[in-house]
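It is worth pausing here to work through a concrete case rather than discussing structure prediction in the abstract. The textbook approach is simple: state the sequence, then state the predicted structure, then interpret. We follow exactly that order.
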Amino acid sequence: MVEAMRLWGVFDLQKEPEPLRPARSICCEPGPGEVLLDVLACGVCHTELDEIEGRTPPPRYPVTPGHQVVGRISACGEMVDCRLVGSRRGVAWIYSACGECEQCLGGHENLCADFRATGRDADGGYSRCMHVPLAFTYPIPDCFTDAEAAPLLCGGAIGYRSLRLANLSDGAVLGLTGFGASAHQVLQLARHLFPKSPVFVFARSEADREFARSLGADWAGGTEEAPPEPCASIIDTTPAWKPVISALEHLRPGGRLVINAIRKERGQRGLLSGISYERHLWMEKEIKSVANITRRDVSEFVDIAARINLKPQVQTWPLDEANRALLDLKHGRLKGAAVLIPER
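Step two, the predicted structure:
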């Protein structure tokens, strides 16, 4: 039985397709304010590829990745109500923040200088157990299975934050470039929050475009294909630069591009030299980045998802096949979200 899959350094996945190694899961007693979770499911995210390939490296090795965690509380530290033992909780990318700085007090804990990320700055959910501050966990509604709940905690919640930052008004056209774990949840969410807004999807593969149509996209085309009309807002969920340039060209005057990515892949920055001020930036077009996530994003989105019966499409793997799931994600072989299930 594999207890954890750990990362021991930076890897080139083209040459080393198995960067994670099985390891013993070390789950000490939770400290004050913490709980110990028995992990039930953990989503697989492109940010794990960023960690493995060195674009957002952990501060120490080894580290257990994984920041879309659904678990059951098995032990409580001091200052935690032990009646919570047995309850199901979720853990997202935000593992902790200081709670005292100007950013935290202003509701922007995602921008805290002491922001710590689950699965990067602290061990995450590619494991049979983990400990986490209770204040940074979320109740999981009974309407979701463990596997369905996991992608809500990152792809869904960061998509919700992106949609709020898109500054969209109901009836204005929303564009989504890239159509994976996050965008397929954003499409369902937009249908609820902005029922009059057409949704256009830009995606590389016909399979992704057909998936988007099946979820209600009004139009789906290639990354560089011209949509039926310019978009008021576009959310980019890709790891690449090329869709950013294309998206800017597809915005209407005064439109906003929201880039939903912790990092962009290297080796493509030369594409930015192709930006034309007249075609891509003129007429007060805006670019907005999304930095991390707040607890508000997660809790509000999970509540909305339960209310509107939003269900992510998931593919599951045993924990010991985490490397295969990551490669499928890297090479675009997934439909929806990937989720790891530890053996019990």
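Step three, interpretation. The first helix runs from residue 46 to 52. The CA atoms of residues 1 and 343 lie 7 Å apart.
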